[in-house]
C-alpha cells in the first residue's frame, strides 16, 4: 500500500493526523526533529492498527533538511498517496525585536520546505490514483498580524500557493487542500509565546476535531474547522483591511 508522508508528526495536529490516518488503516512516513517521540508513536500505531510506519528525523529549518527526507523516500522507493505539510511554528513579538535568524527559520519551515517537498514529491504523488496534498495554513492567513508579522505572512503564502495548486492540479488526480485552523490546543501556543493572549485564552479547538474535519474534506480547496473560525473569516472578508489587522493585533496584545 502507498504511504502518506506527514511532517510535524511529533506533536499536536500532526500527531493526531497520524492517529486518525492509522485508524483508517493507512501506512505512514512520519517526520519531525524529535526522533524518540516519532519512534514511540510509530510503535503505538503499529501495535494498535497493524499499519506500517516509517520514521525519518529531519530538521526542516536546515538547508538540506528537505533533500535528506526526499533522498530517503526515493532510495527506499516508497510509493506516496498523500503528503501532509503540517510542520510549522510561530513566535510573538515585534518584527524588529524578534531575532532575525528565528524569523528566517520560520520562513524556511513554514514556506520553503513546504514548497520544496511539494515540488519534489509531486511526480511520486502523480504515480498513485487519487492522491492528495494537505497544506496546513491558519486563519492567520486571512489578514496581517501585528506582533506575529512573519508568521501571519507565512500562512498567507501557504493559503495563496495551495489555492493556486488546487486549480492547477485538479484534473491531474492530485487534490490539494489548505487546512486553516484557528487557535488549537497543542504545543504551538507555548512555543509561539501566545498562550496568554486573548486569542488563545478565550477558545481553542481540540486537535482531534480539527483533524477530523480536515480528513473528512481532504479534497476541498479550503477547510476552516469550527463554526466560530468560519464566522471570524467570513466577517473579516466583509470588513476593511485596516480593521481586521488591528483586531488581529489587539487579540495578540
Ligand atoms: N495550534 C494552533 O493554534 C494552530 C493554529 C493554526 C495553524 N497551526 C499550524 O498547525 C501546524 C501544526 O502545529 P501544532 O499546532 O500541531 O503545533 P506543535 O504541537 O508545536 O507541532 C509543530 C510540529 O512541527 C514540527 N516542527 C517545528 N519545527 C520544525 C523543524 N525545524 N523541522 C521539522 N519539524 C519541525 C514539530 O516537531 P519537532 O519539534 O519534533 O521538530 C512538531 O511536530 C503548524 O503549521 C502551525 O502553524 C496551528
Automatic annotation (TrEMBL):
It comes from the Bacteria. Keywords: Oxidoreductase. Its EC number is 1.-.-.-. One of its GO terms (molecular function) is oxidoreductase activity. Residues 2-188 form the Ketoreductase domain. The keyword Oxidoreductase applies. It holds the Pfam family adh_short. SMART domains: PKS_KR. Belongs to the short-chain dehydrogenases/reductases (SDR) family. This is SDR family oxidoreductase. It comes from Marinobacter xestospongiae.
Amino acid at each position: 500500500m502507498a504511504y502518506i508522508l506527514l511532517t510535524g508528526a511529533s506533536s499536536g495536529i500532526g500527531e493526531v493526523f497520524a492517529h486518525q490516518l492509522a485508524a483508517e488503516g493507512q501506512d505512514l512516513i512520519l517526520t519531525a526533529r524529535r526522533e524518540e517521540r516519532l519512534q514511540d508513536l510509530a510503535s503505538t500505531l503499529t501495535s494498535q492498527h497493524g499499519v506500517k510506519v516509517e520514521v525519518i528525523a529531519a530538521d526542516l529549518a536546515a538547508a538540506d533538511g528537505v533533500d535528506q527526507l526526499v533522498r530517503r523516500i526515493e532510495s527506499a522507493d516508497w510509493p506516496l498517496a498523500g503528503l501532509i505539510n503540517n510542520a510549522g511554528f510561530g513566535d510573538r513579538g515585534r518584527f524588529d525585536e524578534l531575532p532575525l535568524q528565528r524569523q528566517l527559520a520560520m520562513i524556511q519551515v513554514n514556506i520553503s520546505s513546504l514548497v520544496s517537498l511539494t515540488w519534489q514529491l509531486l511526480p511520486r504523488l502523480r504515480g498513485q490514483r487519487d492522491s492528495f496534498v494537505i497544506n496546513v495554513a491558519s486563519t492567520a492567513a486571512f489578514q496581517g498580524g501585528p506582533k506575529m508579522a512573519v508568521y501571519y505572512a507565512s500562512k498567507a503564502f501557504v493559503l495563496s500557493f495551495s489555492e493556486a495548486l488546487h486549480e492547477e492540479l485538479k484534473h491531474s488526480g492530485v487534490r490539494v487542500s489548505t487546512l486553516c485552523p484557528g487557535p488549537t490546543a497543542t504545543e504551538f501556543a507555548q512555543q509561539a509565546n501566545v498562550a496568554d493572549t486573548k486569542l488563545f485564552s478565550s477558545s481553542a479547538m481540540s486537535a482531534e476535531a480539527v483533524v477530523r474535519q480536515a480528513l473528512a474534506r481532504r479534497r476541498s480547496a479550503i477547510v476552516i474547522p469550527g463554526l466560530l473560525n468560519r464566522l471570524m473569516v467570513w466577517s473579516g472578508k466583509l470588513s476593511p483591511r485596516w480593521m481586521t489587522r488591528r483586531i488581529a493585533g489587539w487579540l495578540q496584545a
